[in-house]
Amino acid sequence: MSIKSLLGLRATVRLVGLRSLSSSSAEGTVLVNQKIYQTDDMTNVSPKILSHIGKNLHLQRYHPLCLIKERIVSYIYSKYRGNRGNPLFSVIDQMDPVVTLEQNFDSLLVPKDHVSRNKSDSYYVNREYMLRAHTSAHQTQLIKMGLDNFLAVGDVYRRDEIDKSHYPVFHQIEGVRLLDRIEIDKLTGTSEEIKLFENGDKTTYKQAVHTLDAAKISEVDLKDCLIGLAKHLFGDKIEYRWVDCYFPFTHPSWELEIFYNGEWLEVLGCGIMEQEILSKAGVNDKVGWAFGLGLERLAMVLYGIQDIRVFWSTDSGFLSQFEGASPQSNIVFKPFSKHPQCYNDISFWLPKESFSSNDFYDLVRDVGGENVEQVNLVDDFFHKKKGLQSHCYRITYRHMSKVLTQDEVNLMHKHIEQEAVNRLGVVIR
Q1: Distance CA 295, CA 416 (A)
Q2: Which of 13, 91, 92, 113 is most buried, judged by most C-beta within 10 A?
């Protein structure tokens, strides 16, 4: 597969014959990037979610996500160069967000019972295809194409709660570096030949097939790269720490945290790539490391942006603050929405069959769009006599560029109630 065939063009999205936008989909088809997919019982994408495909905020000049991406790329380019002075890393940033379940889960060794596979957590086009939940979905594909060092950047899709720091579409950048014996030897700075593989035991520090030397040298290279990246983004005098964690696709695995504005902030996750992933991609003579981070999370911290919805705004009050900026510009974002909030509560009995709060959050996004700032579950109780569970959600309405009247909010809220009954089978209290 060529890089040209990998790259996606601006998306065209259309739903045909799709009666329901909830997680129980009707028969029909969905058109994404000029390709038609059959829908089935797993389909839970909606026109609202699909409308984000092709906007490519990370490619829009002067957009804060593009600035953060370029800042990271410039650091990686400067740190890793070939013998001729050319950057070692390739940047792949226009990949089609529709991937197979094999790409998103199986190729990364995600267990069959992992929560991320649930319809309540991911967006499915059908039983075979989905919207990628992470840029790691392209990892095996890119390695099979012969890339040893690359940054993969793109929009990713996850079903989540509604508040100022969560949005169902966000952007990730993933870095992968593969090291053969020659590269490992270079990192040691000695003439001693380092053995990469053994038939050993898995420990806290290494995989069963890796020698301890190979694992530790790879770890040092990875952490040196990422500490340098953190200093490049936040300044040389940062206080940082490594936290052991678990990812299905790396071992050992860590999260990098920095002490910023009086609290510990998670910056990224990383680890030594599972050798099984490399072997299945046809690579048996190299070890590798990988890291991933969210662009919105970094941009919110570095630019002082308080509401994640802002990144999708086309309001000049937002975009003009970054016009002409360079990746190194120090910008303090000035909020352009000072309109008052409106609050409405909705209470309902849950259906006796399965119910996911993420289904309700998606419904609210579909109906309320950018008028909804936050949704909180404020009451959850079980009525013993009726044998029913009740939820009460408080919906906070506030548009970023106009005043919403209470009458407008009431109409929107009534529509949400009606759709909750029709789509989710709840009973309004």
Answers
A1: 31
A2: 92
Global pTM? 0.85
CA-to-CA dists, residue 71 to 77, 236, 318, 385, angstroms: 10, 15, 20, 59
pLDDT tens digits in sequence order for the chain, 429 residues long: 434 333 333 333 344 433 333 333 445 999 877 789 999 999 999 999 999 999 999 999 999 999 999 999 999 999 999 888 899 999 999 999 999 999 999 999 999 999 999 999 999 999 999 999 999 999 999 999 999 999 999 999 999 888 889 999 999 999 999 999 999 999 988 778 899 999 999 999 999 999 999 999 999 999 999 999 999 999 999 999 999 999 999 999 999 999 998 999 999 999 999 999 999 999 999 999 999 999 999 999 999 999 999 999 988 888 899 999 999 999 999 887 667 888 899 999 999 888 999 999 999 999 998 899 899 999 999 999 999 999 999 999 988 778 888 999 999 999 999 999 999 999 999
> Which of these, 40, 15, 13, 14, lies nearest to 26 by C-alpha position?
40
